[in-house]
Structures are given as C-alpha cells and as structure tokens.
Write a structure and sequence with these properties.
Layout (H helix, E strand, L loop, with lengths): L4 E7 L4 E6 L32 E11 L3 E3 L7 E9 L5 E7 L1 H5 L2 H5 L5 E13 L2 E5 L5 E4 L15
Parallel strand pairs: 6-8
Antiparallel strand pairs: 1-2, 3-5, 3-7, 4-5, 5-6, 7-8, 7-9
Length: 160
C-alpha cells in the first residue's frame, strides 16, 4: 500500500514549489493541484455513440403493451410501457414510456379510437439498439393523441 509523499522541487524568494504524490484515498474535495497517475486496463469506445438530443415525432399509433416494472422488488422499481408507432412507409419504432406516462397511458381508450390514430410525442431520447432506432421518454416528454394539426388532416379518414 502506497502512502502520500511531498517532495520539494524548487524554492524561490516568495514561493516553494513541491511535488505531491498522493494516494487516491488520501485526496480530499478541497485538494487542488495534485497530479494523479492512472493505468487504464480496459477502455470501451463506442463506434457510434447514441445521440442524446431530444426529438419530437409524429407517427401512427399501432399498438401498446401492458405496463410493466423494472428493478428490484424491494426498491428502485420503474414502471414502463412499450408502444409501437409507425411512419407512413410502414417503418416501426419502439417508444418506451416511463413512470407517470406509462401509468397514465389510456391504452383501452386509445385502442378503441378510429384508425389511423396519430400520436405526436415531444422531447424523446433517441437511441440505437441493434441498428434500430428506439425512442424513450424523458421527464420533459408528453404525447398527444390525434392532435389538431392542419397538416395531418389529409391522413385522417374523410367524413361524408
């Protein structure tokens, strides 16, 4: 086990410069100007790090699963719900809602609506998993079912 040492390197009329070799366990939050040497035994570098930018999406709601929980049974459980949304070309993306959004998602009511069901989702985190895009809700995320946006009217069934 190594101990911290201090070696005087240079002395001038007004200053004394010292080199401090510190053991990491001896460092304190207020310590400044200490050099740490570290050996890295394994480094992981992502080939394509996922974007952490938050995005907005407007797609067709296809289906959703039941809410589930992740985490230990005694603490730190999070509620989630997987939703499949699709663009006009039929490409599906999985959207995961977390906690309150997953709890309050009105699956049965939404499933009874006339198709196509448009869903607009704000402030999603976008990531890639096995080269497929995935969306995940953030604390700022909200979703709108069949929002009244004029540009979307052409995708709704016409009423005669």
């Amino acid at each position: 086990m190594s101990h911290s040492t201090m070696n005087q390197m240079q002395t001038t009329s007004s200053k004394t410069i010292v080199q401090v070799n510190a053991n990491i366990k001896d460092l304190r939050p207020k310590d400044r100007n200490k050099i740490l040497e570290a050996k890295v035994y394994r480094a992981w570098i992502a080939r394509e790090p996922p974007s952490t930018d938050e995005k907005d999406y407007i797609r067709c709601y296809i289906s959703s699963g039941e809410k589930g929980t992740i985490g230990g049974p005694m603490r730190d459980q999070m509620v989630n719900r997987k939703i499949e949304i699709q663009n006009l070309n039929g490409n599906s993306i999985e959207l995961t809602l977390w906690d309150d959004l997953a709890e309050t998602f009105k699956k049965d009511e939404i499933d009874r609506l006339e198709k196509p069901i448009i869903i607009a989702v704000t402030s999603c985190k976008v990531s890639k998993y096995y080269n497929k895009l995935q969306l995940s809700s953030t604390p700022a995320t909200y979703y709108y079912i069949n929002p009244k946006i004029p540009q979307l009217e052409r995708y709704r069934p016409s009423r005669v």
